[in-house]
Amino acid sequence: MQACDLIYVYISTKFVVNVYFVYIDPMKTESNTLDTSAHWLLLVISLPTNSATGRMRIWRNLKSLGCGSLRDGVYLLPSGGAQQQALQDLSEETRREGGSAWLLQVGTQTADEARAFKALFDRSDEHAVWLGNLADVRAGLVVMKAPEIGKLLRKLRRDYEGLRAIDYFPGESSKTAEAAWMDFVQVAESLLSPGEPQAVSAQIPLLDIAQYQGCTWATRQKLWVDRVACAWLIRRFIDRQARFLWLASPADCPPDALGFDFDGARFTHVGERVSFEVLLASFDLEADRGLQRLGAMVHVLDVGSGFVPEASGFEAMLTGARQSARDDDELLDKMSMVLDAFYQHFSVEQGAAK
Prior knowledge:
Blueprint: E1 6-10, E2 16-22, E3 40-46, H1 52-65, E4 68-71, E5 74-78, H2 81-96, E6 100-107, H3 111-119, H4 124-138, H5 146-165, H6 172-192, E7 216-220, H7 225-238, E8 243-247, E9 258-259, H8 275-282, H9 289-303, H10 311-324, H11 328-347
Parallel strand pairs: 7-8, 7-9
Antiparallel strand pairs: 1-2, 2-6, 3-5, 3-6, 4-5
Helix pairs in contact: 1-2, 4-5, 4-6, 5-6, 5-10, 7-11, 9-11, 10-11
């Protein structure tokens, strides 16, 4: 059988599908490519009965990918490069356990069948459970200490990102979950970092960076995501001779200091942009790929919308550095090295470093 032969496969009394058969040569798996015109990937696996550990491990991986199950040993995912690689890896793992595996491309026969396939990936029930858990923990936030809130926020972020990653066909429940998550993040951040600014509606004028050298910059003390990233950005790309004041209250900001990331500051949240993104726009730095992607990460952590895989790792490092740093100057020094590394990582084109 050739790699692009079309056959019909009887899956169950409910499904008969077109299949573009792709034979997976265990010696040459890296050279296989799938026909991107197909809409679904089908994994058919069979494991020996004496491989209980292997069965459990593969089942957990299938569950983490959000696979739809057509019957025992027959699993479905929407077609895509990441899904293809993940199923390819599971195929190879199955063969290592002494089983057999076939990775197929399938196309549905009717519109009803297409809808039935898509329904296998309805995440409404998962969203409902997650929203219930979120509501339960939110009620107790106000009595938690900062380390507890930070730990809870990181766990819930991982849960949310895991659910979002397998939400292949976002619907109304997805929008509800995102809105609830953004609201939860804002509440948690307000407890971790009191005085978070409210976004204003305004134009962001383009500024001459030469007029902002050797300045005094001021923000709220006990640096958190947006503020530490802004301070790094200022010293690294805007004003290398910058001096910083860490304010106990925004009201303490001297009139000649350039405030950032608090209500009434010279640089603060504008529209959908967090303070870091406002600084990028103000000083014409948005074309820098590394800074742009750093801005997306800061945005995710500060207001909760979007998804950046590296966000949880950065948040964990900031939490650890915050606990060990003696003051905000030392915290900025520690996190500047971290942000330098993230900037280098984000500046490299995807796949170029492999």
